[in-house]
Fold DUF4913 domain-containing protein.
Amino acid sequence: MTERILGRFPEPPKDVRYIMLLLDQAKSPDPEEQEQAEIGADDAFSCKVVDLPRPWDPAELPPQVRQEYWLWLDDVALWVNHTYGWRPAEQVPACWPQHPWLVTELATLAMARWVAFRDASPMPAEEWHQWSMPRFVDRLTQRMGTESATQCTKGRHAPWPGESRAMATTAAADDRQQLFADDVTAGHSPAVKAAVPATTPARH
């Protein structure tokens, strides 16, 4: 059986494509298209265009959109690995949903690719190849290349090395909030007041 030389980039879910259409219409100089964008945003998402979720920021997407979005992003990860992952270290690990930084990186890469290759000119696609994809790989190999993350690149998710420190930072939130409150209510400290002369010295 013959295979295609190059697999097609996965098409984003319908809701994501519609959001991108509304955002494009909102940028149009044509008032009618801007009005259509506002109507579409209100009908589909009960919000103004300016408040539409950006598909490159998955945390902002409503649950009904995320359900299909995650499946699409997983297909994108597979496509990236088969198309660009020549070396194992350059491939998106199977546990990518367990790495928040990688989720946001992959989402931005995927949406940038979709937008670039739909342009009427090849230049956005060239820029994606020249900047977006190589820099994504650089950041991927830099973070996943650490000793603690080598398990992930081999298909076995490694625990988060910085989890204990992050948990300690979260646990100390009340202490920080108290410091912030004390700072606001304290006004100027005596040390600051002492540094300001009461009168201006006479010039000789």
